[in-house]
Amino acid sequence: MTLWDPRLATTGRPAGEPGLLRNFVGGRFEPSARTFAKISPVTGERVFEVAEADGSTVDAAVTAARAALRGPWGRLGERERAAVLRRVADELDRRFDDLVTAEVADTGKPMSQARTLDVPRGAANFRAFADIVCAAPTESFTTVTPTGGRALNYAVRKPAGVVAVIVPWNLPLLLLTWKVAPALACGNAVVVKPSEETRPPRRCWPR
């Protein structure tokens, strides 16, 4: 698993020009024929150009996700997947200040909220679902068969496959972790579509 890095996602541009945020597919940043401007909800300035995903980008993302399920990721057990989720949480902690800065620029919410809610809760979600998947019980019970024997019935949990995640505009990082973390914990591969119109709830607008 490769954690998204905005420093790698941005391409070089002339001084003073916004960077370009590219799509991340199959472990690589992909180009795009079309872009749109990410506008600061506070200042109205253009803070980034964002690569627009088209149908071919989505197809490539789904193909990469299916390949991950057929590859090493699909062969990991619960405890191994939990270890990956905890490493993600550790990386979120390590880059805490970077993520706070990104959240504030993206949503316009107060820095105090990003520091106490969005980023720490995002890391906590990965740890929480890592703990849950390791401790989740498996249901089993016995029944008497028509011939008088006894049968053991038990549940076998398997990944659903490729999971599509749509992230709302108001809590882009936190709500992403609430969806991506449990999907990965259960062994799925994930394709994420964030909102292109991220903005803070009304109560977060600067006065």
UniProtKB/TrEMBL annotation:
UniProt entry keywords in alphabetical sequence: NAD, Oxidoreductase
Entry keyword Oxidoreductase: yes
A GO MF term: oxidoreductase activity, acting on the aldehyde or oxo group of donors, NAD or NADP as acceptor
Pfam families: Aldedh (PF00171)
Keyword Coiled coil tagged: no
SUPFAM superfamilies found in the cross-reference section: ALDH-like (SSF53720)
Domain spans labelled Aldehyde dehydrogenase: 32-198
Superkingdom of this protein's organism: Bacteria
Family: Belongs to the aldehyde dehydrogenase family.
Name by which UniProt lists this protein: Aldehyde dehydrogenase domain-containing protein
Record organism: Phytohabitans suffuscus
Organism phylogeny: Bacteria, Bacillati, Actinomycetota, Actinomycetes, Micromonosporales
